[in-house]
């Protein structure tokens, strides 16, 4: 299976201690990637870009390193997850030396034409490392654009014209710090101002800014590049699209509930989804039980809409990471058994509504339903805050194989039987769009409509006549 990634990025321009601040930001987006972490920074004493990266969680990678002693004001950072086992070569940021200068690059997303770009660049004489990363291709494109124009902004436009797919990109060109968001806004990115005039930062989510007490200013706009300095940031329009492609799955599942993303508080969006779900799929029951953690806000909304009391009927082991982004099926199945434990006093003898954000492969939900029944539930009704995920994601979330998706070849009733629930209800696509508050044409709904906002060979492009009315 080809490598796909889900990641978090950070960048900062400050007056001091860039490395320490980057570690804080990466802790705030740790949920986006748990296999590797890294930072790159411009060493003021050596007058060159250096980097520190490795496999593991943020605190593990930087354990034993006194980041306070690093003489650097500017830098970028990254947390990484891959569906294949990580190697140190996969960890970002990548430091790439070009004829036009040193570049450090990290990004969240998938470049869908990466193979073609690599072949074209190799024919033009560029040499790749063994990893042959997307970041190397982007660095070479930037170097070509800079050589031709002498302007890093024009080089970014040169890059944006040639790459296809999703990207929230942070980069350093010598000591200058930039961030760029793809023209559709598929991947999130936001800007913050540090306290007491300490500098400016960007992060994949506002939680990365919150952790260091920075003020969220706004999202990086789709197709916008920003150059950060300690005194502010400069904005440049790199590309413009009439309609955007915000990933709905970020709002439903992937982002932290306390994030503010594209002008929406994720927690409130999820509550609205749950409320709408209760109206679309009402049920007679005694208790609403959220599947922690990402199903919790949906469950509160369902409880508000249905009038059924909500209780914490499943307790989570905080030392077990998300099962969905575990890299192998064997690890996912093991983690489900370690992750949750039922509260029998809440569940026994009750008609239970289990509320979760999504069902992808069905493995986790099947085990949770069985666990709740074993705890004595009289009935188990499942309600899901996303439409059935029936198609792959090619743009950065670990759903690349249609055959692994339980809704790819099964009806809702067949899925109900598969997971062992008494009833099963998904929110409708229209209900989801309304709850999120976006124009449907500005969302990427590819994994639930099989229509994509970017050209994917063999798949339907949403610019063709859509079967969905938004």
- CATH structural class of the largest domain: Alpha Beta
Distance between the termini: 34 Å
Largest sheet: 7 strands, antiparallel
Number of strands: 25
Continuous helix count: 15
**Structural classification:** alpha+beta
Question: If you consult CATH, what is the topology of the largest domain?
Answer: Glutamine Phosphoribosylpyrophosphate, subunit 1, domain 1
Provide the number of structural domains: 2
Query: Which percent bin holds the helix content?
Result: 25-40%
Secondary structure blueprint with pairings:
Layout: E1 8-14, H1 18-28, E2 36-43, E3 48-55, H2 58-61, E4 72-80, E5 94-98, E6 101-108, H3 114-123, H4 134-149, H5 152-162, E7 168-173, E8 176-181, E9 190-193, E10 199-203, H6 206-210, E11 215-219, E12 224-229, E13 232-237, E14 246-247, H7 248-254, E15 260-261, E16 264-265, H8 266-280, E17 287-290, H9 296-306, E18 314-316, H10 329-339, E19 340-342, H11 344-347, E20 351-356, H12 363-374, E21 379-384, H13 412-419, E22 423-426, H14 429-436, E23 443-444, H15 446-449, E24 451-452, E25 460-461
Parallel strand pairs: 14-23, 17-20, 20-21, 21-22, 24-25
Antiparallel strand pairs: 1-4, 1-10, 2-3, 2-4, 5-6, 6-7, 7-8, 8-12, 9-10, 9-11, 12-13, 15-16, 18-19
Task: Give structural attributes.
alpha+beta; Rossmann fold; 25 strands; Glutamine Phosphoribosylpyrophosphate, subunit 1, domain 1; 470 residues; 15 helices
């Amino acid at each position: 299976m080809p490598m796909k990634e889900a990641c978090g990025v950070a960048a900062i321009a400050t007056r001091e201690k860039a490395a320490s601040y980057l570690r804080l930001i990466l802790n705030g987006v740790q949920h986006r990637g748990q296999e590797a972490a890294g930072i790159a920074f411009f060493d003021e004493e050596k007058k060159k870009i250096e980097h520190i990266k490795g496999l593991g969680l943020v605190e593990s990678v930087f354990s034993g390193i006194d980041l306070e002693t690093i003489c650097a004001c500017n830098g970028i950072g990254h947390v990484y997850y891959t569906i294949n086992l990580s190697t140190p070569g996969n960890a970002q940021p990548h430091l790439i030396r070009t004829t036009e200068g040193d570049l450090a690059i990290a990004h969240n997303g998938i470049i869908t034409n990466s193979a073609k770009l690599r072949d074209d660049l190799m024919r033009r004489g560029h040499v790749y490392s063994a990893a042959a990363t997307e970041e190397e291709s982007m660095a070479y494109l930037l170097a070509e654009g800079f050589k031709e124009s002498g302007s890093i902004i024009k080089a970014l436009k040169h890059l944006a014209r040639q790459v296809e797919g999703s990207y929230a990109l942070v980069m350093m060109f010598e000591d200058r710090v930039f961030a760029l968001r793809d023209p559709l806004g598929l991947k999130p990115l936001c800007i913050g101002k540090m306290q007491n005039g300490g500098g400016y930062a960007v992060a994949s989510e506002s939680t990365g800014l919150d952790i260091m007490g920075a003020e969220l200013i706004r999202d990086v706009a789709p197709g916008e590049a920003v150059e950060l300095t300690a005194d502010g940031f400069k904005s440049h329009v790199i590309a413009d699209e009439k309609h955007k492609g915000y990933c709905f799955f970020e709002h439903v599942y992937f982002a932290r509930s306390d994030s503010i993303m594209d002008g929406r508080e994720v927690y409130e969006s999820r509550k609205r989804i749950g409320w709408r779900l209760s109206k679309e799929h009402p049920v007679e029951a005694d208790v609403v039980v959220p599947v922690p953690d990402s199903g919790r806000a949906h469950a509160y909304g369902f409880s508000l809409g249905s009038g059924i009391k909500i209780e914490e009927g499943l307790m989570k082991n905080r030392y077990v990471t998300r099962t969905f982004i575990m890299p192998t099926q064997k690890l996912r199945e093991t983690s489900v058994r370690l992750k949750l434990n039922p509260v029998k006093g809440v569940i026994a003898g009750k008609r239970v509504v289990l509320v979760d954000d999504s069902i992808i492969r069905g493995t986790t939900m099947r085990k949770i339903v069985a666990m709740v029944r074993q705890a004595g539930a009289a009935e188990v009704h499942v309600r899901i805050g996303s439409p059935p995920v029936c198609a792959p994601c090619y743009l950065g979330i670990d759903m690349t194989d249609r055959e692994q998706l339980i809704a790819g070849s099964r009806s809702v009733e067949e899925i109900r039987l598969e997971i062992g629930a008494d009833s099963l209800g998904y929110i409708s696509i229209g209900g989801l769009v309304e709850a999120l508050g976006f124009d449907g044409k500005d969302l990427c709904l590819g994994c639930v409509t099989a229509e994509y906002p970017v050209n994917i060979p063999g798949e339907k492009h949403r610019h063709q006549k859509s079967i969905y009315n938004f």
